[in-house]
């Protein structure tokens, strides 16, 4: 050991440095990188799989939406106007050519009403019992035998008046509608009417053919697979029997080669289950990691070479100058720019120090100029926030800050969707908006007032005649930033141009009212307050307030009062025009959106998507259809609320069980005490507990006490009367009777048997 120490002390600084570098830095770094590479490989693979699953969820959402729309359209067509369409369809199955032509003409009129406005609807098909058929909108070339073999066809025949969903893709099936593409994914809704619906008894089957966005979604995600550019692999949709419903590549998986990784997600389609599948080559999952790994290895190798080459030079002449540089950087980091470092060391180091000193001076100039530029912006922001918060009137702001009173401006409302995030993320969103307003292009003309974690208002100063293009560019950048950085959608309500502060309060109120229309539009929409209020106006907002009670009953799952209020509304509709009824329908949507937010939910969360309800409602062109739409909308809210209520009540039963387990030793524990703890009526709680637990509250409590008694008798020497008190019995005789009835043995004999 002494000899080793002696040699170590005599060793040159250069050699010592290299040995220390290799042993204490090089080797640990090498080991760390090996472990990191292994972890990164697994993480990249898991992330790749997760990305595919997220894509699949997008496909599932589109498919579910298309199926729901198909089902709703099917129901509307069948039952609209007292089965009128079925009657005309049945009338085409006659030898009387004049009667047949008349019925066909009526059908075509109804086609213009129900089918023509919907681009995704391909055809409506009526199959008669005698084998004849009638097509509307488009003609489908189908193999009759193939259709009759489909499960949805059989199920529809067996179960009258029930919609069944099927599908086919025009590429693999050979079925095609006139004017259609060869690679479409077609959804089929089938219903076999009974005598109550089809009084003629002629119609065997009604089939509605509708194109689905799913095919385009899958092809978009897989368009580059054959070119070897796509890491999503081969995509398919299959049913429960592994029949392929849609695929990006013909053939079965075993024909593509072995070693594929299958990522599979189920989707419930009424009485059946379909599967979204992606077959991916394993090396594609880690392709990104391999590229990263190669680059990192090259960088590491280069670093080691450079580190070895410059080590001796570093030791000799660079340490002290770098220490001075480090000291200067810390001073700058602390916020002080009055720092100067004396140049020392070799040429490159001296040059770097000179550049550092020059950079600090330039920063001083820059920040001084920047402070001057932002001076007016900060003042404007302050007064804008004070006015919007109601702490100052526009007149008071004009007196204190004259430039603010001379601006032409507009006010913008911004709503941030999906804001149920942690406090830190909320602060980040606010920082995003504030930093955006500091952009050099908008710093002097845009300021913000953040009302809450989800809503804010912007003051945009107008400096040019045609300000719209610049404003819209700013809003596009704002929306892209929110989506890119936080995955949030922004709804924006744009106000009108104002010339003086006298218009401020009026315009702010207009924008706030316009923001209430966000429930009618997609999450990333931009609307103009003036246009929407002029077109829709106060009647929609008044309707939303008026119909709040109707929506409230739906969210309370109070079907009785909901039906009563809905019928009152339908009585009122009898005297209104179609335009007035449409405004009422929009008011219902707004009221539902407000109520959903009060329940920490959203319309998109309830219906699976934020639809353009304004457009949908405007497309409904008759009173009967809009009544049906309102009924379906309210029923959906009712079912949603009922399901949440059931979950809440189940949670209460779990809470009650936990309370019984914690208080079994209380001999005075009562049913009313437990019911009060969970916040339910005693009688309702007792019935609900018995239904959910399969036994009464008393029996459940007795079971807990008896199991605890067995445990104490087996593991301790307490007297029987002491055990009785410990498990909640005043009387040892009562305890003995219950124990013997439960286990068919007395407590004393049980202890001896153990």
Structure, explained:
The chain has 754 residues and is an alpha+beta fold. The chain has four domains: 52-285, no CATH class; 407-534, Alpha-Beta Plaits (2-Layer Sandwich), CATH 3.30.70; 538-642, no CATH class; 663-753, Homeodomain-like (Arc Repressor Mutant, subunit A), CATH 1.10.10. Helices cover 60% and strands 13% of the residues. The protein contains 30 helices and 16 strands. It has a five-stranded antiparallel beta sheet, with helices on both faces. The chain has a five-stranded mixed beta sheet with strand order 13-14-12-15-16, with helices on both faces. The two termini are 67 Å apart. Mean pLDDT is 78; it is low at 372-377.
Keywords for this structure?
4 domains, Alpha-Beta Plaits, 754 residues, 16 strands, alpha+beta
Poorly predicted tracts of residues: 372-377
Rg from alpha-carbon coordinates: 37 Å
Percent of residues in helices comes to 55-70%
Shape label: extended
- Overall number of structural domains: 4
How far apart, in Å, are the first and last alpha carbons? 67 Å
Looking across the biggest beta sheet, what order are the strands in? 2-1-7-6-4
The number of strands is 16
> Overall mean pLDDT score?
78
